[in-house]
Model the fold of this input.
Amino acid sequence: VRMMWGFAFRWRLFSIPVLAAAVSCGRPLLPQSTSGTDWPAYGGNLGGTKYSALSAINAGNVGQLRVVWTFDTGEEGGLETQPLVIDGVLFANTPKHHVIALDATTGALLWRFDSGVPSTGPNRGVSYWQGGLDRRVFAGVTHYLYALDATTGRPIRSFGDGGRIDLRRELGRDERTQSVQLTSPGVVFHDLIIIGGRVSETQGASPGDVRAYDVRTGAL
Done:
């Protein structure tokens, strides 16, 4: 199903009608395993192909799709984000750039992370990394990159400075004068989280450096 998540997660103002499709044959669209049927990265995979090999929806039954649940964030504002789905859990942003985890089968809220940093505007998703039992969600909020425990949503205090990295730092300039914001999720490659960032387009802008950080420690 090409672009499956593109239409299935069409988020509305004030609410998020997240994946809510079922077919008459009774087979769920969202699987409960990681056997190549999850949506673990922005664009579906590291290649960003926006493609899923799931076959439960096809040209013959797509007209039978129906909404099975929706989720309301309780927030106003626009949203540009693409959820991840891993082992039956949906991870996504809200209009205020909180991070939420939902049960992908029922839409029940599992946890919600509020950084306390006011933020709105484009935030196109989160990143995911797993090493053994250590499962992390990486989320950008303005100029910060947070590492969250994927099970609880709590910041991992051993990452960076108490669970986050200030992306204004380590640019070779006075951090107080820098402006770098994450509007797209980073790419996870082995044990690195690789990020870019949005900077000003006028003279005096911060460097648009591409940087890689250790997913466990937050070291550059």
Q: What stands out?
A: Residues 213 and 219 are 5 Å apart (CA to CA). The first helix runs from residue 4 to 8. Confidence is low (pLDDT under 50) at residues 1-35. The chain is about 0% helix and 25% strand.
